[in-house]
Amino acid sequence: MSRGPTDGRGNRTEISNHSFGAAVDLNEENNGLYEKCFAWSKKCALRKGGRYRPGEDPLSLREESPAVVELKKAGFLWGGRIAGNQKDFMHFSPTGY
Ligand SMILES: [Zn+2]
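# zinc ion complex -> structure
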């Protein structure tokens, strides 16, 4: 349950692309899911996973990281570049969400 509107406790209420085997998370400990994050900055609020530290932690993914480049070639979009107030740096799927 990581998509759709939130319930009274702030939890998403719809099934994610992971449920269908159409999404993958990489290095969750180094590529967290952030909220209040229209554009990445250290002021974004970490919701899940470990801190995202591009340029400091070699396991924090960047646009030029081989995993990002190869997954994009395979048709996946990166959750670190999705529109809206979340950035999910560990996440890849055909839609990015
Ligand atoms: Zn994910």
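# post-check
The CA atoms of residues 13 and 68 lie 28 Å apart.
The longest strand covers residues 3-6.
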